Fold this protein.
Amino acid sequence: MKKTIVMTGASGGIGIALAKSLSESGFRLVMVSRTADESKKLSSMFGSDNKYYDCDLSVVDNVKKLGERIKNEIENIHILIHGAGIGVYKSFEEVSDEDWINSFNINITSPFVLTSRLMEKLSRNEDSLVLNIGSGSGVIPMKNRSVYCATKFAMRGWSLSLSKEFTNRFPGFCVVTLGSILTEFGPLTIEDKKSLMQNGKDYLTPEFVAGKITEIINNPNREEEYEIYPKGYVQSFL
Ligand SMILES: NC(=O)c1ccc[n+]([C@@H]2O[C@H](COP(=O)([O-])OP(=O)(O)OC[C@H]3O[C@@H](n4cnc5c(N)ncnc54)[C@H](OP(=O)(O)O)[C@@H]3O)[C@@H](O)[C@H]2O)c1
């Protein structure tokens, strides 16, 4: 029987590549995207064997309802991937209250709320896993990204702490820390990023990253943290 993965951020650059890679690897997917239109698009791409939910993760009450629905409607859950995220790249003076609240709600509160609602189902499976998509912004302090860094440092701290707390029980926790990936994430478009590549900046493709994350998920001896960076990534922030 196929194992079931619930994933948020399914409509994103990394999300679509990851869904493709995980389907090819034999998983059944429960895909969460922000809007009904995105859900429809995903269902035309990935077929009716998989399940689709839409939810605006910036609204905590909606996330609570989503968690209850998935808990009641999906019989067996093996893996939960927190992939949704927004990147507010602004100076302190530019950050609005809304930027702050949305960033925290989407990037870290929704992972907590969904994990807590699905914990009972996850803990029934001996090889279950919560996989968090982290960022170099959760490891390296970066100017003009204080809000994004705060959420990704929080996610990393949350994941690594739970990894210790759940040492001899399930689910396991793993944070995959990513450097720059060629998607629409953050203030630059893919075209902007391709122009920067012509001037020597390196970006990883979402397909490469999806392959690495699929390997991590399929590895029974996985670590609690992985860093996947393009070349020159860390040095560019020194
Ligand atoms: N790209 C990078 O350079 C990079 C580097 C390090 C870490 N990451 C992390 O990788 C993850 C995926 O990013 P990506 O590169 O695939 O970016 P992306 O293409 O912008 O995808 C982001 C995903 O999050 C979803 N999302 C955003 N706001 C939402 C909301 N209010 N409610 C529900 N879903 C929402 C998006 O849904 P919509 O499609 O509806 O907007 C989309 O599916 C993020 O957690 C990000 O922090 C990315």
Q: What stands out?
A: Residues 9, 11-15, 33-35, 38, 56-58, 83-87, 106, 133, 135, 178, 180-181, 183-185 surround NAP (CB under 6 Å).
